[in-house]
Amino acid sequence: DVDQKLVMAHVYGHADFFKNNLWFAHTNRQMLDEMANHATRISRYMDKYGYEEVEAFIDRCLSLENLIDIHQPSIRRLAARPQERQEDAHVADANSGRLRASGYMDSFINPPEYLAEMRQRAAAERQREKQFPVEPQKDVLLFLLEYAPLEPWQQDIVAIVREEALYFAPQRQTKIMNEGWASFWHSTIMTRHALSPDELIDYADHHSGTLATSPGRLNPYKLGIELLRDVEDRWNRGAFGPEYEACTSQAERARWDRKLGLGREKIFEVRRIYNDIGFIDEFLTRDFAEAQQLFSYRYNRRARRYEVESRDFDDIKRQLLTSLTNFGEPAILVQDANFQNRGELYLRHVWEEVDLRLDYAQDTLENVQALWQRPVHLETHITDRGLMQFSYDGKEHSQKLLVPQKV
User: Fold this and answer.
1) Would you list the domain boundaries of the chain?
2) Each residue of 244-268: pLDDT tens digit?
3) Measured between alpha carbons, how far is residue 285 from residues 172, 200, 208, 246, 274 in Å?
């Protein structure tokens, strides 16, 4: 059956990608067993604490599963030991930034203005170290797991949700490449090896349906396979590097062929080390965008449809990369866990010219507050209003303007 052959060939491509792509290097290869263990533990909690209570808590955690640091498994962060920090503080207090100098040179080497500035810096550093956390934390779910006043079973569920979110993060980071790679190889296998003549029409119909596009929507299968084919073609022809980029003749670029034959080697290299952001940033070219008729779209609320906003290559690439950064979701940081010395949680939205949806923001505040069990605040920028603070104390929402929008 052609469908079974197509699925098998497609899955071969996925299996190769999962095994060899760098962004999957830290994933748990026994995750099926781990998830079965998760299900068993949650079932026990439901039996002990009640289905509805456990289910409601899981729902809250799932609404926060994107508030993680997707790079955390790949980064080893080293903090200074407490003793070292105490010794550094002692040295700073004793010397106040004073540089070594002979007695008669001291007033020149260490003028009063310099010493005052050094004392001010040391005081600011000590104040910073009193703040908790010392640095803003991107992994909100981990912070809640470690510091929110949760019951042991609740901590376990938060850990389960976070572990599974981190497991699936590389798949979200490589959606275009992964589907493109699988489509590339199912196309290659089917057309060169697996198809019989009477299956060709059915295969072509199903394959074209998979790669179909529509205005305002990105089809990762289509973009992935076409960009991989473009990379293979360019590296086969030698259509890359300073000499090619310096060529301004479209006719000459179209005829360009150094017969290098490096295309297959190059796409395997790409498969090994890139994620979607790097893939698009490195290999999406103006020629490719024009050949594929890529546009940036916006939704017209009056007409209730997507319309072409720009045909400019830089706009197209910028919009595509923006949609892939942090999966197109807002980046939220834990700024202060003892806001105004009241044990309240202060979150900050990293605003990049895209406003939060306030209905989603309020729901998120409610769910974070349910775990933190004290008032929670969120700082964000709202276009035409300015820097805002949204708060939820467990009973009602409030908001206030921190810095008005400059006219």
Assistant:
1) 22-69+141-168, 82-130, 175-325, 330-404
2) 999 999 899 999 999 999 999 999 9
3) 23, 32, 24, 14, 16
